[in-house]
Design a protein that fits this description.
This protein is of the alpha+beta class. It is 36% helix and 23% strand. It has 15 helices and 17 strands.
């Protein structure tokens, strides 16, 4: 395993390469599409996937303790030297009794995928075939690519006699795309078994180009914080009747006025620790002198940065504010009937110190200012998640992760990153502040647009490079 400590490509045999590619193709052919409506889920495809894992990774399954947790959680424990020296006895298939506190490393991914409308694709979304050096199909980027790479790395390393110093857990969920409970159940399982988690790696940022205006080098964007995501319905109740004699303002009209004010009156600016680190890193490595000055001197330029974010909107605005997206609007089902109520669906992405409670209060305040104190208005929370804890970047775990990234991609700039989207890893924030979100692969803008989009695919060379990353990473633990 000495090669793990060298820069450059690791050496894979042709048989190893063929196995990695074949395993990935087979994973994509499992149609593990999750759905909030369980009657629409083909659970046989999920069973097919778990059976495939046992077939493809015999060394892992002959070595690990395997546990099914929650509805779709798959937990593989590779015992570290410290655990074996303590004399703990494996009890395969059953959660271990609480013993002297263990310390663990967690590598995670999800194996469920979002639906794919085949008529919009140039090929079968679950083909799992190879075309022009790429493996094609839903889930290649999100996140069967990282799951496959992780398992291949552990399988290859175990065959060469490697054993981790600390316990290593490979934890996979089949409900991430629907915000399901399985990952939360896995975290509860760690708590119940008195296991201290020292490091978690999940999907997130990637190796990207043009990460920031004026930054020429590729960047490794490592998520150290997530925005919270909350779905709400604003309901404006009105008086139904015939459309021939409408009131001055119908419930739909009032709701529209409220929506206009919500979009106009956005939340206050907040520079979170993660965003400050990101902007300073982008400033330090910037070739544009004005931007270099602005982002390297936030103590002076924060008001200017906030102004620029409001003028430009988009990603920079979202980094500094809780955002409100109006996504649904419904009123009367008939053209000539006044609606008894108008319902507006909204998605808020909560930043930093913002909370669901603060957001609801802000909506109610704006709504009653527009419609009057006595207006019949409700704000219903459909689902919610507050912002995550900020992960530590002043620790040995961050240094190790950064070292491995530089071993795999020597020239990249490494930066903490605020994730706008949500991942399963947020559940681990209740037991550790060493949660990092990094999809260990190069992603072009076109690659990123494939995620949840059409014609999703991963280049074989990118997949092999991701396997290298995981081999290097696990060799450090």
């Amino acid at each position: 395993m000495d090669k793990c400590k060298e820069f450059g490509m690791l050496s894979f045999s042709e048989d190893d390469k063929s196995k990695i590619v074949n395993d990935m193709c087979r994973m994509i052919q499992c149609k593990t599409v999750s759905n909030l409506d369980e009657s629409k889920v083909d659970w046989s495809e999920f069973e097919k996937f778990t059976t495939l894992l046992r077939e493809a990774f015999p060394t892992i399954y002959s070595t690990c303790e395997f546990f099914k947790v929650g509805k779709t959680g798959l937990v593989h424990k590779i015992s570290g030297k410290a655990t074996q020296d303590s004399g703990e006895t494996p009890d395969s298939g059953v959660a271990p009794d609480s013993v002297a506190q263990n310390h663990a490393i967690v590598l995670m991914a999800h194996y469920d995928v979002v639906p794919a409308e085949e008529e919009n694709w140039a090929f079968n979304p679950f083909a799992g075939d190879i075309d022009n050096g790429s493996i094609r199909g839903r889930g290649t980027m999100d996140t069967k690519g990282t799951l496959c790479s992780c398992m291949e790395a552990v399988e290859l390393s175990l065959k060469k006699g490697w054993q981790p110093e600390q316990d290593l857990y490979l934890c996979f969920s089949g409900e991430e795309e629907i915000n399901g409970q399985s990952c939360a159940d896995i975290v509860s399982w760690f708590e119940q078994n008195n296991i201290t988690v020292d490091f978690v790696l999940d999907e997130g940022g990637a190796i990207v180009e043009n990460a920031f205006p004026g930054v020429k080098k590729q960047c490794a964007m490592v998520g150290t914080e997530e925005k919270g995501s909350t779905y709400l319905d604003l309901v404006v109740n009105g008086k139904p009747g015939h459309a021939s004699a409408p009131p001055k303002h119908s419930s739909v009209g009032v709701a529209s006025q409220i929506v206009a004010q919500l979009e106009k009156k956005q939340a206050d600016v907040e520079f979170t620790p993660t965003v400050c680190q990101l902007l300073r890193t982008m400033g330090k490595n910037n070739t544009n002198l004005p931007m270099k000055f602005i982002f390297s001197n936030l103590w002076l330029t924060k008001p200017l940065v906030n102004l620029i974010s409001k003028l430009l909107g988009g990603d920079l605005f979202a980094l500094l504010h809780t955002t409100c997206a109006i996504t649904k609007f419904s009123g009367s089902p008939s053209y000539n009937v006044l609606p008894s109520k108008a319902t507006v669906g909204m998605n808020f992405r909560l930043l930093g110190k913002d909370t669901v409670e603060k957001t609801v209060a802000r909506i109610e305040k704006i709504a009653h200012r527009v419609a009057g104190k006595n207006a019949d208005i409700q704000v219903n929370v459909i689902s919610y998640g507050n912002p995550s804890k900020v992960s530590d970047t002043n620790c040995s775990q961050w240094e190790t992760l950064s070292q491995v990234i530089h071993e795999n991609w020597p020239e990249v700039i490494i930066s903490p990153y605020l994730m706008m989207a949500c991942s399963d890893s947020r559940h681990y924030c209740r037991i550790t502040d060493k949660v990092y979100r990094f999809s260990a692969m190069y992603m072009s803008r076109e690659d990123r647009e494939m995620i949840h989009g059409v014609n999703e695919a991963i280049r074989i060379d990118v997949l092999l490079k991701t396997v290298e990353f995981y081999i290097r990473l696990i060799s450090k633990f």
